[in-house]
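Dear colleagues,

As part of the handover before I leave the project, I'm documenting each prediction I ran so the next person doesn't have to rerun anything. This entry is a single chain, and its sequence is reproduced below.
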Amino acid sequence: MDSDKCVRNRPGWRVLIVGGASGMGKTRLARDLAPRYGVPVVELDDIVEALLAVTRPEHLPEVHYWRTHPEAAHREPEFVVERQIAIARALAPAVEAVVANHVDTDTPVILEGDYVLPGLATADGPVRGVVVHEDDEARVVSHYLAREPEEGPQRHRARVSVRYGRWLADQARAAGVPVVAPRPWSDLPRRVDRLLGAGAPLSRR
């Protein structure tokens, strides 16, 4: 067994929300946490794709926005962030339904995505949360370059991501949800585990 793999007993929460803007490391964190808690990951992107497949733009204009207005992604960062916030709020009922289903059916899951609002989580209870935020644009640019070298530096995207991430971080703090910096990557899952107050230290396999 890989010595870095960890396992723990069934978590006290039923839904763990891992939020944050694009390029912050939340997907990597969610995938690292999943085997530690022995739960699957649900990506909000999949929920968005399902909604796009079964609705028309006139039904959910905000959710369809980037497909109906692809050029808007290149507008000034403030405008793009406003659209992202609007999309997150439009998706909230669908996300709430998924969260409620996992709580009601007692099936723990990690829910990860750019558009998950931190306010769904509480400081203590069946729905917990954490927001990953990097406030240094240069580091986000570097992350994009490492992940998608063929796309170039993506500085505009990084600028948007940091600004949207700040908004999510503010929402998280207002809700009492922890905000964590992704670096150092090596101990991010353990830092999150401690912040969640999940109990005894993780045991190694």
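The beta strands are 6-7, 15-19, 41-43, 109-113, 127-132, 179-180, 203-204. Residues 45 and 132 are 17 Å apart (CA to CA).

All the best with the project,
I.
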